[in-house]
Write a structure and sequence with these properties.
This protein has helices at residues 2-12, 34-39, 60-146, 151-182, and strands spanning 31-33, 52-54. By secondary structure, the chain is mostly helical. Strands 1-2 form a two-stranded parallel sheet. Helix 3 runs antiparallel to helix 4. The longest helix has 87 residues, at 60-146.
């Protein structure tokens, strides 16, 4: 380019060719016009490698291929990132739900333990309350059998047995009422 232009100016200005220095270190670079290649139907395989082609109209893929590949890679990375974030959020939601269910279960277990302890305490007290009048009935029946010939004493024992039996019946009725209330089969009314 420039070197050849300077040489041409020297020749035009009258400098003898033998006096013009030749630069052998300049790179060999071919400049080819795409319009000429197209006009004469020259096969591109015949063009020397490294040639600079002017007026070249690249194909769509040659012009935008890199942009398409980079954009596709970024889009794929973003989709992958969205999927990962979505899974993390889903796992967090599931973990939160599981933690809440575990807390509810722990609360239910604690309530059941308290109810079981209360029932055990109730049964312990009730067994004592039931045993006292029942022992009176059994003991007074034995004494009444031993004194069956004495009508006054037998009537006295039978009256005490009746009182103890009614007391025992009241206690059992109270227990049954409490069980019915607990199972929502009996309602308490304020009078």
């Amino acid at each position: 380019g420039r070197i050849a232009g300077r040489m041409a100016l020297q020749i035009i200005s009258g400098t003898p060719c033998s006096m013009i220095p030749i630069d052998f270190n300049s790179p060999n670079r071919y400049m080819i016009d795409q319009k000429v290649v197209d006009k004469f139907n020259i096969d591109m395989a015949l063009i020397p490698k490294g040639a600079h082609i002017v007026n070249y109209k690249p194909s769509f893929w040659e012009e935008y291929g890199t942009v398409i590949l980079v954009t596709s890679a970024i889009a794929a990375a973003l989709i992958l990132l969205i999927i990962i974030i979505q899974r993390m959020l889903m796992q967090k939601r599931q973990s939160t739900i599981l933690q809440k269910k575990n807390e509810e279960l722990a609360f239910a277990v604690a309530q059941a333990d308290r109810a079981n302890a209360a029932k055990s305490q109730f049964l312990s007290r009730m067994s004592h309350e039931i045993r006292t009048p029942l022992n009176a009935v059994v003991g007074l029946t034995t004494i009444a059998k031993q004194n069956i010939s004495d009508a006054v004493k037998t009537d006295e024992y039978l009256d005490k047995i009746e009182i103890s039996s009614r007391m025992l019946l009241n206690i059992i009725n109270d227990i049954l009422d409490m069980s019915a209330i607990e199972n929502n089969r009996l309602k308490i009314a304020n009078v």
